[in-house]
């Protein structure tokens, strides 16, 4: 089974557990107090426990590709705090974008410094022009 198939399966199982817990909550709110209602809730709760145990076994299975999936602890904390994980993703992407812009600016500044130094060195020491050009050729990255 591919990783994507396993993730889809787990997603469906988690959705079923969540839906069942919502139904259980509604049942508790409207609980009539009969033995039959108590038995139904106990059965539903046992089914959820079994589903969660199955998910746990599936995630711990050494043959499962789910072992390779790593969820950042910050994301788990974010969700536990009741916040939307999509916002976490958006903030993470923005932080990476800002970092990339900063790194790109540093690379551009260093390239300008390299070119300026090369020009000044060849102006002051014309006999080093071949060495300077060699250095420029080896450090020239078109990024």
Automatic annotation (TrEMBL):
GO biological process assignments: regulation of transcription by RNA polymerase II
Matches recorded under Pfam families: Med10
GO molecular function: transcription coregulator activity
Record's subcellular location: Nucleus
Keywords: Activator, Nucleus, Transcription, Transcription regulation
Cellular component, GO annotation: mediator complex
Similarity comment: family membership: Belongs to the Mediator complex subunit 10 family.
Quaternary structure and interacting proteins, as annotated: Component of the Mediator complex.
Function: Component of the Mediator complex, a coactivator involved in the regulated transcription of nearly all RNA polymerase II-dependent genes. Mediator functions as a bridge to convey information from gene-specific regulatory proteins to the basal RNA polymerase II transcription machinery. Mediator is recruited to promoters by direct interactions with regulatory proteins and serves as a scaffold for the assembly of a functional preinitiation complex with RNA polymerase II and the general transcription factors.
Protein's UniProt name: Mediator of RNA polymerase II transcription subunit 10
Organism encoding this protein: Torulaspora globosa
Phylogenetic lineage: Eukaryota, Fungi, Dikarya, Ascomycota, Saccharomycotina
